[in-house]
Amino acid sequence: MADSLDSDPTRRATPDDTNLDDIEFGATIKGFGRGQRVFDRFELKRRLGRGGMGVVWLAHDHSLGEQVALKFVTEAVKNDAGAVDDLKSETRKARQLSHPYIVRIHEFWEDAGTAAISMEFIDGSNLSQLRLEQPGKVFAVEALRPWLEQLCQALDYAHGKARLVHRDIKPANLMIDAEGDLKVADFGISAAISDTTTRVSKMTSSGFTEAYSSPQQLRGKRPEQSDDLYSLGATLYELLSGKPPFFRGNLILQVQEEIAPSLAERREEFGLGNAGVIPAAWEETIAACLAKEPEDRPQSAGEVWERLNRTTKYTQEKKTEAEEQGDVLPQRKATERKKGGIIRVGIAAALVLGAGGWWFGLEQPKQRARGAERVPVTLDEVSHFEVPGLGINMRHIAAGSFTMGSPSGEPGRLSDEIQHRVTLTKPYWLGSTEVTQGQWEALMGSNPSHFKAAGENAPVENVSWTEAVEYCRKLTERERAAGGLPAGFEYRLPSEAQWEYACRAGTTGPYAGDLAAMGWYEDNSGSKTHARSQKRANGWGLYDMHGNVLEWCSDWFGDYPSGSVTDPTGPSSGTDRVLRGGGCVLSAQGARSAARYHVSPGNSNDLLGFRVALSSVR
User: Fold this and answer.
1) Which residue did the predictor score with more confidence, 33 or 364?
2) Taken in order 229, 208, 123, 42, is the CA torsion positive or negative?
3) How far apart are the first and last CA of the chain?
4) Separation between Cα atoms, residue 220 and residue 597, nearest integer Å
5) Band of residue 73 on the pLDDT scale cut at 50, 70, 90
6) Same structural domain for residues 493 and 434?
7) C-alpha to C-alpha distance for 289 and 303, rounded to whole angstroms
């Protein structure tokens, strides 16, 4: 049976885990650690990412008093004077860019053993991550439209005024910040680091990046803005279909010689018939961007935007010209396809649904924040939205199946974690973070937390199950009265199955990723809670599912069923309610995705908090 917190608040021994931040990462100059000071200016806070081209850290700039991202280069590059000179030159060029939708590059830093590029830190997710959170793991056209407009503006500025080519446009380099705006990352820097790393270490570049490179770029031609437009087309192709135009086999050969399937064909192949219809203008424009020859592509990002929206006569004139010549799309001159027709049935309906997703997921929360009147929401197609006045960000969790519990060999496993198959037939929305002290006080009028010094953005704790349920009731009442909920929906605590499904985010191991990077627990918390979103989110955009505070679930505690179940809600009665997620004073094993706790619903202490779910009660 799972432990009761009344008897053993720490319940599991701390494993002898190695701190991954102190490990050598391949060819990277050296391992770095939290709190380390570099260049006599920056204090390292947490690792943001790593790869064959180096490692990126979040750092505090003590001179300017702000957070920055530091991209460290590999040891091979640092020790090559020519490579360092090239990177300095590219950094100087990138510093010329000053645009609201481009990540700002600051400076190239170097000392006896280390070299890095400092740049603006964007607290958000990239489009590669966000795509995985969408229904069918692809974006709706209208959800992408506002970001695509910003991207085209950024590229037009860089190409036209700054005369710079990015050379590595792909979903992972398109960030969405906390305000919901797009930011283009690594302008000229990523490709420059890749080039120098390849030259000095004889490495080959990543095939994943090759999937977005134009034929000319793969042949080593001088970079042109037409290369970025090809990459833009490949990026949109992936965001709308789930994969880039070419994603397996010899990518270089295919990019240079093969014609990609139409988006309609690719989506049909992947079984995305329920993911909406691609408008003809988008299908044609993306295909034009993927043309093998630069002259057959749009000539600017602004033209791409015009074609997508049919705001000029250009698209119709080109279409007429192509039809007269017997060509359907510029990209497909060499091949006629039997399925070449573009599906147009239902476009109007798809646009309405997509626009609703954009409105309620992005624009309506912004207007609410400005004091605009609430509009009754339709939650279909909404990937995320914010509860106005409280700042609770709700993330869409699609219906699906998963294996709940843990395998017998998992370290820290207890006997009550028996694996069984669970199917959740209804989508729901879950708070991307635990309810904070500020969010609690705004609705309840007081703050019961013990760790008040952690600030209003730290999770509220010292909350009983009964009090958490009351918060959900008041939130539902408030939003219904304001017209902010559709009929049949209410805010509530997630079921235990909903919680674990969201925590795993499609993973099957003990954690949904690197625990040290994702959770506050015994080894790294300092025995106190921390402000929301300081650690890395899981694959579905949810923060602090591992650690910080234990989170109440709606279920009574009991043994799992012996077979497969659908929409389980736990026993009909009991003495204790379920808690999940570990906490700041609990061990790493206690923060596993499958770890269970239980306690009386009237109990409250400084380890107990919660996050809200929104679901249909029908």
Assistant:
1) 33
2) negative
3) 32
4) 58
5) confident
6) yes
7) 11
DSSP string, 362-385: IIHHHHHHTTPPP-----TT--EE
- Asked if 87 and 150 sit in the same domain, the reply is no
Q: Is the pLDDT score of 194 beyond 90? A: no
Q: Average pLDDT of 606-613?
A: 96
Cα Rg of the chain, angstroms: 26
Q: Could you give the angle at which helices 437-444 and 465-481 cross, rounded to 10 degrees?
A: 70
Which residue has better confidence, 55 or 41?
A: 41
Q: What is the DSSP letter of 426?
A: S
Structural domain boundaries enclosing 162: 125-331+345-349
Note whether 114 and 142 are same-domain residues.
no
373-419 pLDDT, tens per residue? 343 445 554 678 889 989 999 999 999 999 999 999 999 899 899 99
Q: Are residues 112 and 153 in the same domain?
A: no
Kindly list the distances between the CA atom of residue 164 and the CA atoms of 32, 131, 187, in Å, as whole numbers in the listed order.
Answer: 32, 28, 8
What are the b/e assignments for 135-161, b being 16+ CB within 10 Å? bbebbbbbbbbebbebbbbbbbbbbee
Residue 564 · residue 422 · CB < 8 Å: yes
Q: Which residues contact 86 (CB under 8 A, 6 or more apart)?
A: 192, 195, 196
CATH of residue 82: 3.30.200.20
Residue 497 lies in a domain: yes
pTM: 0.49
Asked if the model's pLDDT at residue 350 lies above 50, the reply is no
Instruction: Please report how the helices 280-289 and 225-241 are oriented relative to each other, as an axis angle in degrees rounded to 10.
Output: 140
Contact 532, 520 (CB under 8 A): no
pLDDT of residue 92: 86
Query: What's the CA gap between 18 and 158, in Å, rounded?
Result: 43
Rounded CA-CA distance 188/175 in Å is 16
Reported as a pLDDT band with limits 50, 70 and 90, residue 196 is low
CA angle 356, 567, 382 (to 5 degrees): 10
Read off the amino acid at residue 217: Q
Is residue 375 one of the residues assigned to a domain? no
Q: What is the mean pLDDT of residues 470-487?
A: 92
For residue 312, tell me if it sits in a domain. yes
Residue 262: pLDDT over 90: yes
Q: Is position 259 within any domain? A: yes
Question: Residue 606: which residues within 8 A CB-CB, separation 6 or more?
Answer: 449, 450, 451, 461, 462, 529
Task: Give the model confidence (pLDDT) of 422-468 as tens digits.
Answer: 999 999 999 999 999 999 999 999 999 999 998 999 999 999 999 99
Is residue 155 domain-shared with residue 100, that is, in the same domain?
no
Domain count along the chain? 3
Residues marked as catalytic: 168
Computed over every residue of the chain, the mean pLDDT equals 81
108, amino acid identity: F
Contact residues for 325 (Cβ-Cβ < 8 A; gap 6+): none
User: Where do we find the tokens 């918060």?
Assistant: 471
Q: Give yes or no for a contact between 529 and 451, defined as CB atoms under 8 angstroms apart.
A: yes
CA trace torsion 482, 141, 311, 305 (10° rounding): 110
Mark which of 320, 349, 378 sits at the end of a domain.
Answer: 349
Burial category of 173 from C-beta neighbours within 10 Å (exposed 0-12, middle 13-18, buried 19 and up): buried
Q: Provide the CATH number for the domain around residue 564.
A: 3.90.1580.10
